[in-house]
Specification:
A hairpin with a 3-residue loop joins strand 4 and strand 5. The strands form 2 sheets. The protein has a 6-stranded mixed sheet with strand order 6-7-8-3-9-10, with helices on both faces. Strands 2-1-4-5 form a 4-stranded antiparallel sheet, covered by helices on one side. The radius of gyration is 17 Å and the shape is globular. By secondary structure, the chain is α/β, with parallel strands linked by helices. It has 7 helices and 10 strands. Bound molecules: adenosine-5'-diphosphate. The site of adenosine-5'-diphosphate has 11 residues, from strand 2 and helix 1. Adenosine-5'-diphosphate binds next to strand 2 and helix 1.
């Protein structure tokens, strides 16, 4: 049986005034893949992430989720529903400072209207998965960077998303925390979730033998399995 294609970029161009952030980019990512988006600063990695979550719209081209949803055409409640179907992780965590770890994660399910008992079970499960159950009542500011990113990952996966997309998830972390986060993302991928990680960290890419889509000046220059080769 053919695998489901989770994310397709088809001839995608993103232009800011006369600057091309992405220039005719095409790739397809299958369900269950772990893919690194790599390249030097300014290559277009973040733009791919922004377009994939429709924080921005492409100038031209198509973005297709799960073989059927035209991400670039979504608006209103359909866009909100799409974003709730994917997990998103940022370099700066983007946790809600006035909520505890537990509340940050539970919030995702509350806005979907899930029953309280189901929320409790799911939140407990993901906080245990990321090793933060003992910090469930802590506020983000009292946590280390690594712990904050683990809380953000718990929040991103609590809805059991088909796709997890991360923009420089280890950019603010030291080596030891970086390694923990990459192992965690790998574990989540091993359970079947498609994981897409934009990074310029060569060591991170080389630590796992995964598919690499390399960008330069807004174009895909290589698409292969293995370490980061410049
Ligand atoms: P990367 O994530 O690989 O560092 P980006 O996707 O952030 O690269 O940026 C790609 C190019 O697009 C860069 O040259 C950047 O300056 C430009 N760019 C990104 N966002 C904007 C914007 N909002 N306005 C103008 N130019 C932008």
């Amino acid at each position: 049986m053919n695998k489901n294609t989770v994310l397709i970029f088809e001839n995608v161009t993103k232009r800011y005034k006369d600057k091309y952030a992405l220039d005719d980019v095409t790739f397809a990512i299958d369900e269950g893949e772990f893919v690194f988006l790599v390249g030097p600063s300014g290559a277009g990695k973040s733009t791919v992430v922004k377009l994939a979550i429709q924080q921005e719209k492409p100038t031209s081209g198509k973005i297709i989720f799960n073989s059927k949803i035209r991400v670039d055409k979504l608006s209103g409640s359909k866009l909100a529903k799409y974003r709730s179907m994917i997990g998103i992780i940022f370099q700066d965590f983007k946790l809600i400072e006035t909520k505890t770890v537990w509340e940050n994660v539970a919030f995702v399910l509350e806005v979907c209207g899930k029953p309280t008992r189901e929320i409790k079970k799911a939140v407990e499960y993901v906080l245990d998965l990321v090793g933060l159950l003992d910090k469930k009542d802590a506020f983000p500011k009292t946590l280390s960077g690594g712990e904050q990113q683990r809380a953000a990952i718990a929040r991103a996966v609590v809805n059991e998303p088909l796709m997890l997309i991360a923009d420089e998830p280890t950019g603010n972390l030291d080596r030891s925390n970086t390694w923990d986060i990459i192992q965690l993302l790998n574990k989540i991928n091993n359970w079947g979730t498609t994981v897409i990680v934009a990074t310029h960290d060569v060591e991170v890419v080389n630590s796992l033998n995964k598919r690499v889509i390399a960008f330069e000046n807004g174009r895909v220059i290589r698409d292969y399995i293995g370490g980061y080769e410049l």
